[in-house]
Amino acid sequence: MRAMRLEFGFLVIAALVSCEPADLPVARALELENGFRRPADGVKPWVYWWWVKGNVDEATITRDLEGMKAKGIGGLLLFDARGYHEDHVPPPPAPMEFMSPEWRKMVKFSMQEAHRLGLEMSINLSSCAGALKGPWDVGDDAPKMLVWTSAEVQGPRKVTCSLQRSSGGGLWDIALLACRHAKGASGEAAGGGEISLSDGWKGVVGVAKPGTEPDEIVDITDKVDGQGRLTWDAPAGRWTLLRFAFRMMEGRENDVDVLSAKAVTAHFQRMGRALLDDAGPLAGKTLTHFYNVSWEGASPTWTLGFDQEFRTRRGYDIRPYLPALAGIMVRNPEITQRFREDYRLTLSDCFLHNFYGTLREQCHKAGIQWHSESGGPWSREAPLLIRADQLSFWSANDMPQGEFWHPGQTRTNCRRTATTAHVYGRPLAAVEAFTHMQAHWSVWPEILKQGADAGFCDGVNFFIWHTFSASPREFGKPGIEYFAGTHLNPNVTWWEQAGGFLTYLGRCQHLLRRGRFVADVCCYLSDRNYSRWSRGAKWSEKPSLVLPPGYSYDVVNTDVLLNRLSFKGGRLCLPGGMAYRLLVVDLEDEAIPPEALRKIVELAESGATVVLGKRRPTRAPGLGGYPKRDDELRRLVGELWGSEGQQPARRRCGKGHVIVGMDLGPVLAAEGIRADVVGLTDYIHRGDTQEDIYFIRGKGRVECTFRVVGRRPELWDPVTGRVVEAACYRATSDGRTVVPLDLPEYGSVFVVFRRPAEGSHVVSISAPEQGLEVEEVAQQTMQVRLWREGRYVLTDAGGRAHVVEASELPEPIALGGPWEVRFDPSWGGPEKVTFPRLVPWNEHSQAGIKYYSGTARYRQSFELDETAARGPVRLELGKVCNIARVRVNGHDLGVVWCAPWTKDLTGVVRSGANKLEIEVANIWVNRLIGDAGLSASERRTKTNVALFAKKAKRPAWQGFSAEDSLMPSGLIGPVRIEFGRRAEVRLE
Q1: What is the C-alpha separation between 708 and 518, in angstroms, rounded?
Q2: DSSP 8-state code for residue 696
Q3: Partner residues linked to 715 by β-bridges
Q4: Contacts of 658 (CB under 8 A, 6+ apart)
Q5: Rounded CA separation 123/75 (Å)
Q6: What are the residue ranges of helices labelled H in 21-164?
Q7: Which tens digit of pLDDT belongs to each residue from 217-263?
Q8: What is 519-585 written as a DSSP string?
Q9: Could you tell me the end-to-end alpha-carbon distance of the chain, in angstroms, rounded to an integer?
């Protein structure tokens, strides 16, 4: 096998893996490795392809899609949002209306071009972000709200009243109720005059006030005749008459009633069916999905037939309890609270099933799939989302989708998106990736890698980059953009160098779709499991139990607990193969269905180990079955938790155990469950019977211990695509494997176990720092490169020390200057200039360099003697702002986009003169800041992002000022050529 340079940012002691493993099926091994080195189209990331208010043409479509294909993008999500925060970054006027014949022609052409290029496609099924709507008035299918009005009546008296409808229509009566406040109270009989129940409408009241409990509630709906006239003999007492109705929400004429399956189906027929007709035979092949983004739309509080939905789902009639929604206590505070929970839960159920469920059903009928950000982030204050079960909402997708923002360490919901995919058997967990609302064009691949790696560790395996804006050439560069997101399109300064990072994402997705997620714990919190933003180190904001580092978990809701979780073969199992060692019950809600506790007892009796948190449930949720369900719950709580105040205990429950009052660390130890990873614990583990795949991120030199024994570790570098065997590893006495790693800044690596650990191998190495690189291990022989002078000692598993001495290595060559640097004059830079030494462009005295954005080419020559040219040679670039391509003697060595910023020059340098060229691209920020200080006619950039002469207190995403700080740019260095020598170590 030809020697190859290990181009990790860390010098992990490694060797190349054979391409023909004898101990694995050859086809599987080749598929795994070849798919990693050259990701297939099906595992490549997608992009949000944003049409900025319909500003697109055929030439732009072709340019964009061809560019996507060339750079390693596998598909696109077409998004054209109208009227959504257009004040943030005002778009240009729309050249065509949404869903007009011209617009549909462009969409059809896009589908045809995507098909020609082998790209897959999804389309946002709405004319707006965060809502479901189109450019048409939907009439009675618009969202609706519950309203009520009231009148006071003193009985006894005959009450007459005309129940008028609103002048514009769109008002439907629900019920007319009379609430008596003082039983037996009498008053003076009313005179003539009618009361009014046709104005003063109010919406749902947030709370029911104590002291408002009526003695009696009478349904007088049947006292209204066909002409809408009420005639009722009110008995003695003070009565509040409540007229409940529902009407259209104001200003929502184009929105769809998401509580109504009929309305949602009608929207699908209007928009989805039209696009499917345009797709023709490409539906299900090129057009593979429809989509909807996280919900920011209308929050309806009623819909036609909601009372029937309520009865079906909750098991009782809603009408007698409606006064609770008008601020009146019904019977007592307990009853009122439970009813309000049921009302909100029914809103949530209708939203989930009649909106998301209906769209998924309609997509399946059409032969395509449905994905959405149905799990949020939401406004949890909206009535239809207060009781929403986040996991159930995400489960209504073929591919649940979350999001993370740059920087992606805190504002992310990837962990819950992925756990939904795990527990509901969805192979793909998608993510809206790299969203941000910082300064436009201010990020680049090196720093995006941090958020990407965090997302992968959290479990997502399908990136949809937000955002790739279509920008016709007439709009110039950087062109028109959407107000949010990390911009990626042919106008981005580093577009030509973008393929390396996109391929990195594809490689990661290739491996992270293998096998199944490996976790030790499934945790039941209740159905109040909403997590807005969290990396998921803890399963809730205030857990009573905390999983130690190095272990993984999934969250299950009541639906999964009752209908999918079982115990067999010594594991808690889910359909599709997910399995766990422990069930943890760490409740987030005081109200838990008794059915959930019954199932927990059943699992324990079957053999499961159940660990109970400190919080005990106190009641069953809702009003159905009250109070019998509460009695059953209390009995089950006693059976599981025991008496209040008892000491920590582990007790038998059938074939299993219930553990109360103990921390998880001691429990895991007692169960013999060792940490899956020790050392660097930001990781994810996927596996099956044939391979274990760990993806791990971090920085620095560390020994990582993996819960795998008897297999050789391999290191798969997603930056370079290199597959190498870790030549230094050792087994532990407790059945794990230790692998030394040395990760660079923002480093990551896959550690793959798939072959038996046979033959001799190195278990420890003493060597100069960053000095040893292993090229190849074959037939007990290790080929190494030595980059530092000194003594190298490699100790094998048999205790034998193999010593290699390195001395008289050629001295490194510092390439400090002078450098010939060529800029693009069309963007203000000099065609050619000499840098006596490397200096950041933003610190240069020439304005054309100081404010330059784009690519510059650095050139320098260096001389090598025959000895130096014949041995190993590498280029160290030092610091680069922001991405570089290296050429030596006419050989294109590719792009360097992240640490360790090195390139192997072995075999491409020669004795004598060598020509080095380094192309460096920065970002748009400096040119935009420079243009902000110029008149409009002098500016080189053209964009809808605002430029200001003076700095002021304004959001960063609104634009740039001439007084903003410039970004470091260019080749910073220090740049040097380093030399090594080869040696051979025999391990027999």
Answers
A1: 12
A2: E
A3: 724, 751
A4: 604, 610, 612, 640, 650, 651
A5: 11
A6: 26-37, 58-71, 101-117
A7: 999 999 999 999 999 999 999 999 999 999 999 999 999 999 999 99
A8: -SEEEE--S----SS---SSSSSS-SS-PPTT--EEEE-HHHHHHT-EEETTEEE-TTS-EESEEEE
A9: 20
- pLDDT of residue 33 exceeding 50, the answer is yes
- The answer to whether the peptide bond before residue 718 is cis (omega within 30 degrees of 0) is no
User: Which amino acid is it at 517?
Assistant: F
Q: For residues 838 and 820, is the Cβ–Cβ distance under 8 A? A: no
Instruction: Give the amino acid at 725.
Output: E
Round to whole Å and give the CA distance between 202 and 327. Answer: 11
Assigned token pair, 17: 């893996």
Give the pLDDT confidence score for residue 191 in this predicted structure.
Answer: 45
Residue type, 826: S
Helix (H, G, I), strand (E, B) or coil at 841: helix
- Tokens standing for residue 707: 């819960």
Residue 793 near residue 751 (C-beta atoms within 8 A)? no
SS3 content of the chain, % helix, strand, coil (to 5): 25, 30, 45
Q: What is the DSSP string of 407-465?
A: STTTSB-HHHHHHHHHHTT-S--EEEEEE--SSTT---HHHHHHHHHHHHHHT--EEEE
268/271 Cα distance (integer angstroms): 5
Statement: residue 887 has pLDDT above 90: yes
Res. 25 pLDDT band, cuts 50 70 90: low
Q: Which three-class secondary structure state does DSSP give residue 202?
A: strand
- Cβ atoms within 10 Å, residue 925: 23
Contact 9, 747 (CB under 8 A): yes
Can you read off the two tokens belonging to residue 182? 């003082």
Q: Which two tokens stand for residue 392?
A: 């159930």
pLDDT digits (tens, 9 = 90+) for 515-570: 999 999 999 999 988 889 999 989 999 999 999 999 999 999 999 999 999 999 99
How far apart are the C-alpha atoms of 82 and 86, rounded to whole Å?
Answer: 8
Q: What is the DSSP letter of 22?
A: T
The answer to whether the peptide bond before residue 124 is cis (omega within 30 degrees of 0) is: no
Side-chain-facing half-sphere of 441: CA atoms under 13 Å:
32
- Maximal C-alpha separation, the chain: 118
Q: DSSP label at 960?
A: E
Residues forming a β-bridge with 404: 412
Give the C-alpha separation, 759 to 678, whole Å.
26
Confidence check: pLDDT of 911 > 90: yes
Q: Which residue has the tokens 């062109």?
A: 479
Q: Which of 211-215, 420-424, 873-877, 977-981 has the lowest mean pLDDT?
A: 211-215
Residues sharing a CB contact under 8 Å with residue 845, sequence separation 6 or more, in sequence order:
none
Sheet holding 566-568, edge to edge: 566-568, 571-573, 579-580
Amino acid type, 834: T
Q: Which amino acid is at 269?
A: Q
Report whether 163 contacts 213 (CB < 8 A): no
In this structure, what is the dihedral angle of CA atoms 78, 83, 88, 90, given to the nearest 10 degrees? 90
As given in the structure block, the two tokens for residue 210 are: 């104590």
Phi, psi dihedrals of residue 653, rounded to the nearest 5°: -140, 95
Distance CA 904, CA 908 (A): 9
Long-range contacts of 614-617 (CB under 8 A, 24+ apart): 614/544, 614/545, 614/661, 615/544, 615/586, 615/587, 615/590, 616/587, 616/641, 617/587, 617/589, 617/590, 617/591, 617/592
Give the DSSP letter of residue 135: S
- Two tokens at 28? 């599987």
Cis amide leading into 740 (omega within 30): no
Gyration radius (Cα) of the chain, Å: 33
The residues that bridge with 701 in the sheet, in sequence order, are 742
Q: What CA–CA distance (Å, rounded) separates 551 from 520?
A: 7
Is the pLDDT assigned to residue 774 strictly greater than 90? no
